[in-house]
Amino acid sequence: MNLYNKKLKTIIILVYSLLGLTFIFYMIGIKINTTKSIPLGIYIKDKAVYKKGDYVIFCPPENDFMKEARSRGYIGKGFCPGEYGKMMKQVVAIEGDIVSFSDKGISVNQKNLAFSEPKKIDMHGRILSHFQYQTIKLHINEVLLMTNNNELSFDGRYFGPINIRQIESVIRSLWTW
User: Do the beta carbons of residue 63 and residue 70 sit within 8 Å?
Assistant: First the structure.
């Protein structure tokens, strides 16, 4: 066997090994976050009921706003309804919380959230729509999901509260960097 064939065989084994490892990770609920919406790292699905402060993985709702967000690249293509990719965010408000949306940012029960000021334009100079400026009380089936570390994240300041049925599961960090 010549050197070229040995290298090719090694590459093929490596590719199949990575595919197998990816499949195993998927089956046991391991998710790798490569966005800055939540800390970069490796997470695992948890069957616990979400609470404030938890990170969750969810499917974006199917609507025109999310369709435009996907066409602009704010959301990846994936296996959720509407061919949206799953998103990971932190639960910052739940049923009964009073949420105020303004051009200065979001407050939950009169506490201002860091990194919540909506941007007026995106990185390509396009007008960036946001959730209507108002104060609301979240209903029994609503949560607000946000970043906790990135002012450029596409999160609840733009799409508002979501229905809890969109949440797939809580995710817990195994290793972050």
Answer: no
Q: Are residues 19 and 106 in the same domain?
A: no
Which amino acid appears at position 31 of this protein?
K
Q: pLDDT tens digits for 51-78?
A: 999 999 999 999 989 999 999 999 999 9
Domain tally, the chain? 2
- Return d(Cα 159, Cα 146) in angstroms, integer: 10
The predicted pLDDT at position 173 comes to 95
Question: What is the helix (H) or strand (E) element at residue 16, kind and residue range?
Answer: helix 3-28
Residue numbers of the domain that contains 15: 1-32
pLDDT tens digits, one per residue of 111-143? 999 999 999 999 999 999 999 999 999 999 999
